[in-house]
Design a protein that fits this description.
By secondary structure, the protein is of the alpha/beta class. The protein has 2 domains: 120 residues, no CATH class; 208 residues, Rossmann fold, CATH 3.40.50. The protein is built from 14 helices and 11 strands. The strands form 3 sheets. A 5-stranded parallel beta sheet has the order 6-5-7-8-9, sandwiched between helices. Strands 2-1-4-3 form a 4-stranded antiparallel beta sheet, covered by helices on one side. Strands 10-11 form a two-stranded parallel ribbon. A hairpin with a 2-residue loop joins β1 and β2. α11 packs across α12. It is globular, with a radius of gyration of 24 Å. The two termini are 30 Å apart. The C terminus is likely disordered.
C-alpha cells in the first residue's frame, strides 16, 4: 500500500505542475499536499525552500526527525524539499521514514528541478521571485469586499454538494506504458480496435480524463521511456518469449518500485505457464481473450484501489467487493461489473435535470469495485464450509 501512496502523490504533484501556476502558489500547494501521503500524516509537515523563499504546510514546529532532498536549477538557484515529524517514532528505513517515502521525496525534487529548468530555459534573466507577475494595487473598496464575501457565502451554500464530488477520485491514471512485441501491438490496435473500444468507452461514459498510452517493444526502450517522465501504470503483454515478463518486471521494480505492473495474458491457455513461473514482481494478472474492454477494467481497478480511502471517507461512496483468485474468472467478471455499474450510474444521472458538468462529477460517486483474494484461513476450511 505504501508504494500506491507514492504513486498517488506523484500523480497529484505532476497535475499541479501542469497547471503552470505562479511559483509561490505552486510550491505552497505542493507543501500542503506532501504530509497527506506520509505514514504518520497527523504529525507530518513539509518545508520547501527555493529562490530565497520558504513554504511550510503549517507553522514550523520543532522537528523530531527530518528527511530532505536538494535540487539546483540551470541558473544555480538552490532549493530543497523536506518532510518533518513533530513526534518521535520508532526507526524504519531512514529513521522513522519508509524507503518508499524517500523515493517519493527524490522524485518530487527531480520533478521540481526539471520544471524550473524548463522555465529558466525560456527566459534570459535569472529567476528572482515569482515567474508570473501578479497585479498590484488595491482593487477592492470596503463595500466591494463586503459584497464579495456575501456572494462567496451564497456560492458556498449552493455548491456544497458539488464540492464533495470535486474531491472524489483525486487519483487518475493519465500515463500508461504498454510493453508488447510489434505483432501484439498491431493486433491490439487493429484486430482488437483498442483505441475505439477503450478510449471510446471514456467518451461514452462522459469521463473527462483519457489516459495516454505509450508503446515500447524492448527493455532498453522501456527504461529510457520511464526515465523521461512519470507513468502511473505499466502493462506487460506476454508474447512468445515466456521469460520476458519476469525479466522486464524485475528490472522495472528495481528502479521504480512504486509503479504498478499488470501482466496481460493472451488467452486462458497462458495461465498455466504464468502459474509455473510465478512472476513475483507483477502486481496483477489479466487475460485479454481478444476483448479490449479488459484495458478499461485494469485502469479503473487501479484507480478504485488508490481512491478507496479518500472516496469512502469524504463522499461515503459504497464498495462492491469481488472475492476471486483466478485471473480467468475475474478478467470476465470485472469488465461486466464495471459496465453494469457505469451504465446504471449514467442512467440515474441522466434523469436529473441539471448541468452537464454536475453529471460528470456525479459519475465519481459510483460504487468502487475492489478485487480481493480469498483468505488463507477460508481456503483451508473450504471442504467443510458452504457458500451463501
Amino acid at each position: 500500500m505504501e508504494n500506491l501512496n507514492v504513486l498517488a502523490c506523484l500523480n497529484e504533484i505532476n497535475s499541479l505542475l501542469k497547471e503552470k501556476k505562479p511559483m509561490a502558489i505552486l510550491l505552497q500547494q505542493i507543501a500542503n499536499t506532501l504530509p497527506l501521503y506520509m505514514q504518520y500524516r497527523s504529525y507530518a509537515y513539509a518545508h520547501i525552500h527555493f529562490a530565497g523563499k520558504d513554504y511550510f504546510s503549517e507553522n514550523d514546529k520543532t522537528a523530531k526527525s527530518s528527511l530532505k532532498e536538494t535540487f539546483r536549477t540551470l541558473n544555480r538557484n538552490y532549493g530543497f524539499i523536506s518532510i518533518h515529524y513533530s513526534h518521535l517514532f520508532t526507526d524504519e528505513d531512514y529513521g522513522p521514514f519508509l524507503s518508499s517515502e524517500k523515493i517519493m521525496l527524490e522524485k518530487i525534487a527531480l520533478s521540481l528541478e526539471a520544471y524550473f529548468n524548463s522555465i529558466e530555459a525560456k527566459t534570459k534573466n535569472q529567476v528572482q521571485g515569482d515567474f508570473v507577475s501578479l497585479p498590484s494595487g488595491n482593487f477592492f473598496t470596503e463595500q466591494n469586499v463586503a459584497n464579495k464575501q456575501l456572494l462567496q457565502r451564497y456560492l458556498n451554500r449552493s455548491n456544497y454538494a458539488r464540492d464533495i464530488y470535486h474531491d472524489l477520485m483525486p487519483f487518475k491514471v493519465k500515463e500508461i506504458l504498454l510493453i508488447a512485441n510489434l505483432y501484439d501491438a498491431y493486433s491490439i490496435e487493429k484486430e482488437g480496435r483498442f483505441s475505439e473500444q477503450v478510449l471510446g468507452k471514456y467518451y461514452q461514459l462522459h469521463l473527462t480524463t483519457v489516459p495516454r498510452i505509450t508503446g515500447v517493444s524492448s527493455l532498453e526502450d522501456t527504461m529510457e521511456t520511464l526515465s523521461l517522465k512519470h507513468y502511473d501504470l505499466v502493462i506487460i503483454m506476454m508474447g512468445i518469449d515466456r521469460q520476458m515478463p519476469d525479466n522486464y518486471s524485475k528490472t522495472i521494480k528495481a528502479n521504480y518500485p512504486y509503479i504498478p505492473i499488470f501482466l496481460l495474458l493472451n488467452s486462458n491457455r497462458d495461465i498455466a505457464d504464468y502459474t509455473i513461473r510465478k512472476h513475483e514482481s507483477i502486481n496483477k494478472v489479466f487475460i485479454w481473450n481478444g476483448k479490449s474492454s479488459v484495458f478499461f477494467t485494469m485502469i479503473k481497478h487501479l484507480e478504485d484501489k488508490i481512491n478507496l480511502e479518500n472516496d469512502t471517507t469524504k463522499g461515503l461512496v459504497r464498495v462492491i467487493l469481488v472475492v476471486e483468485d483466478d485471473p480467468k474468472y475475474y478478467s470476465l467478471y470485472l469488465p461486466m461489473l464495471y459496465n453494469i455499474v457505469m451504465d446504471q450510474t449514467r442512467r440515474i444521472i441522466d434523469d436529473v435535470s441539471t448541468d452537464e458538468l454536475y453529471k460528470v462529477l456525479r459519475l465519481r460517486a459510483r460504487p468502487k469495485i475492489l478485487l480481493s483474494k480469498k483468505p488463507s484461513k477460508y481456503l483451508k476450511n473450504t471442504k467443510s464450509s458452504s457458500c451463501v
